[in-house]
Write a structure and sequence with these properties.
66% helix, 53 residues, flat, mainly alpha
């Protein structure tokens, strides 16, 4: 599990912008995972299940 706040504010801003602009669904999913993991509270098993679906 990543450390809490492993992304700095500039990285979060870039990821949020890329999430809006990206056309490929698999890239958007990866970005969403990174953003969900940034608080350090997201359950990886639950997130993995969600991604597979």
């Amino acid at each position: 599990m990543p450390a809490k706040n492993h992304l700095n504010p500039k990285q979060i801003e870039k990821l949020q912008k890329a999430l809006i602009e990206e056309e490929k669904a698999n890239i958007r999913e990866i970005i969403m995972i990174l953003l969900l993991l940034k608080d350090g509270k997201t359950n990886l098993k639950l997130l993995s299940f969600w991604v597979v679906q």
